[in-house]
């Protein structure tokens, strides 16, 4: 089964999704007898996503939640507002483009400042602020302190990403 062949009826026949908790439970005994009716469905991947196998096809549970509630597959990606990839509470999920989804990430552990958008440039002996817009890096300027560089990033991120912007 692919996204196009798994019907909403087939999904709701085997699984129950609780929007307020984001929990998935088996309601029909799948062919794999190790899964029991009433138990939580799926497992967490190394990347932090909950995945569920239905008919031999592995689905991310956030996409299944969207399909379960909206009764149509998401047109793009599913973003977790709180950045917890396993938190499938309905109010935590939203449809997003790849670019929007990438913006809603925590600061990676690289860099000296610990502030998103503030990168030390040895060549300039200054802090550079940059943002990625439509796959292209945009340099926002050079700054004498990381806080100013980070602030420039926050302004640009809000302008370009709106509700998907994440400063930390």
Describe the model:
The chain is of the alpha+beta class and 168 residues long. It is 23% helix and 28% strand. The protein is built from four helices and ten strands; from the N terminus they run αβββββαββαβββα. The longest helix has 16 residues, at 146-161. It starts with 7 loop residues before the first helix and ends in a 7-residue tail after the last helix. The model has no long low-confidence stretch (mean pLDDT 85).
What oligomeric state is this? single chain
Main sheet record: 3 strands, antiparallel
Q: Which sequence of strands runs across the widest sheet?
A: 3-4-5
H and E order: HEEEEEHEEHEEEH
Tally of domains: 2
Low-pLDDT segments, ≥5 res: none
What would you call the structural class?
alpha+beta
Helix content: 10-25%
Q: What's the CATH topology name of the largest domain?
A: Homing Intron 3 (I-Ppo) Encoded Endonuclease, Chain A
Mean pLDDT: 85
Number of strands: 10
Q: Kindly report how far apart the N and C termini lie.
A: 38 Å
Question: What's this entry about, in short?
Answer:
Helices cover 23% and strands 28% of the residues.
Tags for this model:
168 residues, alpha+beta, Homing Intron 3 (I-Ppo) Encoded Endonuclease, Chain A, GCC-box Binding Domain, 2 domains, three-stranded antiparallel sheet, 4 helices
Describe the protein's topology.
Blueprint: H1 8-14, E1 15-18, E2 23-26, E3 43-44, E4 50-54, E5 57-60, H2 61-70, E6 77-80, E7 93-96, H3 98-103, E8 118-121, E9 126-133, E10 136-143, H4 146-161
Antiparallel strand pairs: 1-2, 3-4, 4-5, 6-7, 8-9, 9-10
